[in-house]
Design the sequence.
């Protein structure tokens, strides 16, 4: 009898586990925040690394990927208890399904001061420095690198000034035919998008930027 009960418990656990995974593909929809007046950005709210699920549309089913607490997530869509979004931390990056209970909304100011922008920001090994310039404008200097196979590296630069419009900053380095970067300040994160013309092949300034730790 006890063995039968144990088998039933195991079977129920497997069924619940199968049902606890999402279905369908979570499509990457880019970082074009101009389409969204207020990007749906959240962060991982768990005390331990949260499990997200990728490639759920494949024959092998969902593959797990963990994200650290506090990691930002740009939500593209929601389906029941699941949210499809993009996140990045030291474990990896990409679009994935996140359980809604693992997320919390980020509060941010729609009209932040210039000081809220100022400082050093990082995205992995890439870096931007934002300083207050004359007449209320912000000066942004950035360096980005793409690392390819066999030690191949491509580099990109950003050096432009502009006045913020609310929590948005539109930067043009050179001309509109050259490097264009749009940034949205979301509290302790910056969400950026570019036109893929800010450096060598595959060099991008897009994605989430985090405020660099104080020296």
Sequence:
């Amino acid at each position: 009898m006890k063995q039968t009960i144990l088998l039933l418990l195991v079977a129920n656990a497997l069924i619940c586990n199968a049902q606890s995974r999402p279905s369908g593909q979570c499509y990457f929809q880019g970082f074009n925040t101009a389409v969204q007046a207020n990007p749906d950005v959240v962060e991982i709210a768990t005390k331990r690394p949260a499990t997200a699920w990728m490639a759920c549309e494949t024959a092998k089913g969902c593959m797990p990927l963990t994200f650290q607490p506090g990691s930002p997530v740009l939500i593209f869509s929601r389906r029941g208890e699941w949210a499809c979004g993009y996140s990045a931390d030291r474990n990896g990056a990409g679009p994935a399904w996140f359980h809604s209970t693992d997320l919390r909304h980020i509060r941010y100011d729609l009209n932040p001061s210039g000081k809220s922008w100022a400082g050093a920001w990082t995205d992995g090994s890439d870096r931007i420095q934002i300083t207050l310039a004359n007449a209320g404008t912000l000066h942004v200097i950035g360096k980005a690198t793409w690392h390819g196979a066999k030690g191949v590296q491509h580099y990109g630069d950003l050096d432009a000034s502009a006045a913020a419009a609310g929590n948005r900053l539109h930067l043009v380095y050179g001309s509109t035919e050259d490097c264009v970067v749009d940034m949205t300040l979301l509290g302790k994160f910056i969400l950026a998008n570019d036109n893929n013309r800010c450096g060598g092949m595959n060099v991008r300034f897009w994605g989430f930027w985090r405020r660099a730790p104080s020296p």
The longest helix spans residues 2-19. The chain has two domains: 22-105, 114-211.
